[in-house]
Amino acid sequence: MNHCKEHYDIIVIGAGATGAGTARDCAMRGLSVLLVERFDFTAGATGRNHGLLHSGARYAVTDQESASECIKENMILRRIARHCVEETGGLFVTLPEDDLGYQKKFVESCLQAGINAEVIDPAIAIAMEPAVNKDIIGAVKVPDGAIDPFRLTTANVMDARNHGADILTYHEVTDMLMESGRVCGVELREQRTGQKFRVRSSLVINAGGIWGQRICAMAGIKVNMFPAKGALLIFGHRVNNVVINRCRKPADADILVPGDTISLIGTTSSRIPIDQVDRMDVTGEEVDVLLREGIKIAPCLAYTRILRAYAGVRPLIASDDDPSGRSISRGIVCMDHAVRDGIEGMITISGGKLMTYRLMAEWAADMACRKLGLEGRPCRTAEIPLPGSETPEPETGVRKRKSHIIELSTDQKAAQGRHGTMSAEISYNADEDDALVCECEQVSVGEIKYAIKKLHADSLINLRRRTRMGMGTCQGGLCACRAAAILRDETGNPPAALEDLASFVNERWKGMMPVAWGQTLVEAQFMTWLYRGVCGLQPHEEACECETNENADR
Amino acid sequence: MKYDTIIIGGGLSGLMAGVKLARSGSKVAIISSGQSALHFYSGSFGLLGHAGGKELLHPLEAIGSLPAGHPYSKIGAESIPALADDAKRIFADAGLTFIGDASKNHFRLTPLGLCEPSWLTMDDYATCENPSETGWRKATIINFKGFLDFLPGFLADGLKKHDLPCNYAEITLPAIERLRRNSSEMRAAAIAKVLKGPVLEMLAAEINRAAGDSDVVFMPAVVGIDSEQPVRELRSMVIPKLLCVPVLPMSVCGMRSQIRLRRYFEQLGGTYFLGDNVTRGYMEGPVLKEIETANLSGMSLQADNFILATGSFFSQGLAAEPDRIYEPVLGADVEAPADRSLWCGKSIFDNQPYMQFGVVTDRDFHVMFNGVPAGNVYAVGAILGGSNPIREGSGGGVAILSALQVARNIIAAGRADMSEAQA
After folding, report:
1. Mean pLDDT of A251-278
2. pLDDT, tens digit (0-9, with 9 covering 90-100), for B279-307
3. Minimal CA–CA distance to A20: which of A333, A346, A345, A361?
4. Which of A133, A194, A209, A438 could form a disulfide with A315 if both were Cys (CB 3.0 to 4.6 A apart)?
5. Domain check: are A109 and A233 in the same one?
6. Considering the entire predicted model, what is its pTM?
7. Which of these, A242, A310, A270, A247, lies nearest to A475 by C-alpha position?
8. Which residues have CB under 8 Å from A127's CB, separation 6+?
9. Is B341 touching A (CB cutoff 8 A)?
10. Residue A9, Cβ neighbours under 10 Å: how many?
11. How far is B378 from chain A (nearest CA, A)?
12. Which positions in chain B touch A530 (Cβ < 8 Å)?
């Protein structure tokens, strides 16, 4: 994993969806690419949102441009990222306390942006989605869906790698290499060893999200980002099958999204100082708001177990260097710093949203090709499916040893849902491959080994993001030990394995802490009993700086 | 129906109190909702393993300096050695053999190969007096193919730290292979159910073959779900010393303890209501008169004394809502702040305040209702506040000793009543 060349055409900083998409796009256009990330894929804003495949309807009234970008990308992602998308459909519902007059303007704006919004009878909406509040007075059907940001990003990284890109995770950019006023590479610090080294490139693309401001500063470039924190709650099972939105001006906690085995309510929105972006504690007030508003959309949330809480930062950016923030945009900002700041060799791609990651990547890669003088290399990412989403329908791995099983087992079906056609690479040959590691999410030994070997995972937190192991109702209570044992055997690094286990268990706890009552507190006490009590586990060193362990993740 | 004492909760503390009272000739009933924390048991009970951030070798010496609200302080340091001896006798009579002594901790081997100070450990489990001088020369660790809940790699890492070379061998048996057909069946309790009779002989042969010249063999603790007999049989057939290491729950020896203690309680004439829940208690002033349960609808149960042994949050003895922590069975007073930001600490490995929450009792463990102690209601075990069972390594000790202390007091009070009546 640690291998890299001395020089690349492009170094992409940040392995969120945008960085991963940019690396893939550039690599597909034949450029040599290095993707660097200070932690793991999706460790920033990408892994800390709703996982909503926006139809764009939410932005239709306030921001036509974003809305029309969203619906176009929505349709593209359904094709190229089939295995990351659930075509659930969406509803915009009007509660008795909301203004039904907004609905008309909303539908008109949607249609104008090219979003197929259809007013339906509230009774039909309730039949479509029984979890919705029965008192709704209006309903509009829109083409929302759910998208898994972890799979989406991983698939982009894997395809970048398939096209020759090198990937370095847990490598932080500590400095920009500057020569006669131009950027010509980066200095990297390997987080786990502290070792520093330099890599040169013709161009650096900064896809660092909110952390991009710091990256710019290293090159002496000033950009103004405006971090907006958004908190969300995860519920212990999938209460709704259709995305439910409040049909009103966007406000706190007005979207309930189903995803895999769970449902998510969010978000809050609060401005935070830029120096607080690495501290994402969810407050009691945020939890209270999310619950109070969430229950209005779906009353069953009042008695559904809350699995955990987490928060992310939207990287809102001023599109010029206006320090007041008045020109703030939720749209995509792609900056050529040669034009903007007179510093050659660097592009910043920011703003936007998960939904438009591919378009952002396209803009950045277009600009990169122009700057490198490489004409005639068109973007193909809107047509060529991601690994896992190729057609025809996936050929599935068949258990050799268990020839009497004709149907796929639950864990095989789950793996197919998670990895699409890539699930055919999961081995069920070895004797123990079909043993279950994570019962909540049906993750087998074979899938864990596949993630370690093929999906660039070497810690339990990585494995969770690749497979959903530990994301279910027991929050890693039992599977963490089992997976740790496999990881230990596969990587052969015993002392780190125990630290890794402690770090994983603690990250799960951090997400449970803001909602630690009812069954969540019961689960937490069980985890503590098992790991600290029965197993005698405790971290020996200061919390490893090399993981985003400070914050709870999904 | 009328009993001398009714115990609410059939886990470790409820059973210990029940057995102790039944041994004295009392008419006792236990109402148990089913599983208890014993099902997640490590194979060892701690008395006091850690205090003031230090690992303890001599727990009795440290007990005197615990805070006044700690259950051990309420029992009184001077009473503890006698209660501890009593506990060992009761376990032995129930068919559970433990090693260990309250005066000095030994070390148990955890599933991750770490050593933790303990008071009592089941004698088929791996323990040592001193982790740096185990006395073992060469070990073989065995596991069943496809069994993920035993962690041989971590165990070997831990043993290597103490200079014990380890071999590793995977074995399988036809009976185990049958379990493996369903991927969620390879769990400790399911394995324990097939390891008996002739299967044990086959297992012993496999272990002997794998052990080579090792003087000690470590295996997952998956033998003997309802008695020690299968472990004894197996150990008699294995040439090297055979020691069990705990696995992830469910705990086979925990089930064994639960079953043995319950059977012993019933042999002594106790009544065990399994799968029932107390729905209501009727207080008259500071006295609990009777209770109702879900299964015995319309019929109430009366007793002179009641013992609340319902455990902590995990066992539903305490419950938390966003703005309060309460005791759900009788509505007893609970010592815990209403502000939930004070319940938890940021690291799961740090002190977690909620672990110390519990019902309020006086020094004799009488439960308080609205600030007044109930004369005939006691609390024992994990529902008691004032100790942090996980950080202190005191969960087993608090459960066992508080139960025996309360039982002893009830018996003593009964005798006093009787002699008064005779006089």
Report:
1. 94
2. 999 999 999 999 999 999 889 999 999 99
3. A361
4. A209
5. yes
6. 0.95
7. A310
8. none
9. yes
10. 19
11. 24
12. 40, 248-249
C-alpha B28/C-alpha B266 separation (Å) is 10
Q: Which of B40, B153, B322 minimises the CB distance to A489?
A: B153
If asked whether residues A189 and A296 sit together in one domain, one would say no
The domain spanning residue A244 has which CATH number? 3.30.9.10
> Does residue B389 belong to the interface with chain A, where contact is any CB pair within 8 Å?
yes
Distance of CA A88 to the CA centre of its chain: 19
Chosen from A411, A469, A525 to mutate, greatest number of chain B CBs within 10 A: A525
Q: Write out pLDDT tens, residues A189-236.
A: 999 899 999 999 999 999 999 999 999 999 999 998 989 999 999 999
For domain B2-98+255-422, the CATH superfamily is: FAD/NAD(P)-binding domain (3.50.50.60)
CATH number at residue A158: 3.50.50.60
Hey, are the CB atoms on A521 and B320 less than 8 Å from each other?
Answer: yes
Structurally, at CATH architecture level, domain B126-245 sits in: 3-Layer(aba) Sandwich (3.40)
Q: Is residue A195 part of a domain?
A: yes
Measured between CA atoms, the residue of chain B closest to residue A526 is B314
Q: Which residue of B has its CA nearest to A285?
A: B341
Q: How would you classify residue A448: left for phi > 0, otherwise alpha for psi between -120 and 50, otherwise beta?
A: alpha
Q: What is the pLDDT of residues B129-139, one digit of tens each?
A: 988 888 899 99
Determine the residue of chain B that is closest to A284 in CA distance. B341
Q: Which domain holds residue A283?
A: 82-146+226-311
Looking at CA atoms only, how far is residue B226 from chain A in angstroms? 21
Residues A267 and A197 in one domain: no
pLDDT per position as a tens digit, B110-155: 999 999 999 999 999 999 998 888 889 999 999 999 999 999 999 9
Does B183 reach chain A within 8 Å, measured CB to CB? Answer: yes
Q: Is the dihedral of CA A477, A480, A483, A485 positive or negative?
A: negative
Q: Residue A485 is nearest to which of B151, B340, B391, comparing CB atoms?
A: B151
**Vertex A255: Cα angle to A415 and A128 (nearest 5):** 75
Indicate the residue type of A35.
L
